[in-house]
Design goal:
single chain; 10 strands; Immunoglobulin-like; alpha+beta; 5-stranded mixed sheet
């Protein structure tokens, strides 16, 4: 059985290398458009992921190779008696210092990406000055509040704000910022295609920015178990040209504030019509 264990431990590094080589051909990599993120920041995040993957793969294959070598030698030298070794301080220092250096390198290397994504003072100035929308997560849907055309988003809802549910429209090729909040429990704003993920916490308004570099319709899901309806808390982010985005806002304004005769719809007039019908 000794050689069987050698083959067993040899199988895993071979399988790992084969899986990485096959990944692009069997769709085992990141989602959307041949695994490339739909945002520039997402592409940088992917680069960080692949760097970590390469480092861990090299360490895994190296340790497995040493293990297989040691087992193979022990199988072929059964007559030689085992020796008790108390320890080797040099080896212990080496395998403690090298992982420490690698982790320190990764922590420093990723600081720029982390700062650009998470620290507000590094956000694009244009996006910070004019937030696109307020995104409210609630059991079990996403609600979006846009400012009226030509106005800026205010902290408190305004009478002429525009609203939609489970459909967020975003202009293509420009950085946008949304104000994320939760109405009830903890949720998580997750755009897999753009590599954007941020928890939404009750009582907090959290700024999140991204810049889509590819027009299209992308999934928005909740990545935090938030109750029995968590599985159906799904929306879409529609990335379109600035002209199409402005057209969408005009259509939304028309539906929300105007009746079929082009008159401004108000709560008072709707109540009067309901009373007249009765």
């Amino acid at each position: 059985m000794g050689k069987g264990w050698c083959l067993f431990f040899l199988f895993w590094p071979v399988a790992a290398v084969a899986s990485c080589a096959m990944a692009p051909f069997v769709n085992w990599s990141f989602p959307y458009d041949n695994a490339q993120a739909a945002s520039n920041l997402g592409i940088r995040i992917d680069g960080l992921f692949y760097l970590i993957l390469v480092i861990t793969a090299i360490v895994f294959i190296g340790t497995q190779a040493v293990l297989v070598y040691a087992l193979w030698r022990s199988v072929n030298n059964r007559e030689k008696r085992a020796m008790h070794i108390h320890g080797n301080h040099k080896l212990e220092l080496i395998w403690s210092i090298i992982p420490g250096v690698i982790l320190l390198f990764l922590s420093i290397y990723q600081m720029n990406i982390w700062a650009d994504f998470r620290i507000k003072k590094y956000f694009p100035e244009a996006a910070v000055k004019a937030p696109l929308a307020e995104v409210t997560a609630r059991q079990f849907e996403w609600r979006f509040r846009y400012p009226a055309i030509g106005k800026k988003l205010q902290q408190k809802p305004q009478s002429d704000d525009l609203y939609s549910v489970n459909e967020l429209h975003v202009p293509f090729g420009k950085p946008v910022l949304i104000q994320l909040r939760s109405d009830d429990v903890q949720h998580s704003f997750f755009l897999p295609a753009l590599r954007v993920k941020q928890d939404a916490l009750p009582g907090l308004q959290i700024p999140v920015w991204f810049e889509a570099n590819k027009p299209g319709i992308y999934d928005l899901v909740c990545a935090e178990l938030c109750g029995w309806g968590h599985y159906k808390m799904k929306a879409h982010v529609i990335v379109e040209s600035d002209g199409e985005y402005q057209k969408y806002l005009k259509n939304l304004t028309q539906k929300q504030f105007y009746d079929g005769l082009g008159k401004i719809a108000s709560k008072d007039s709707s109540r009067e019509s309901e009373a007249a019908e009765k």
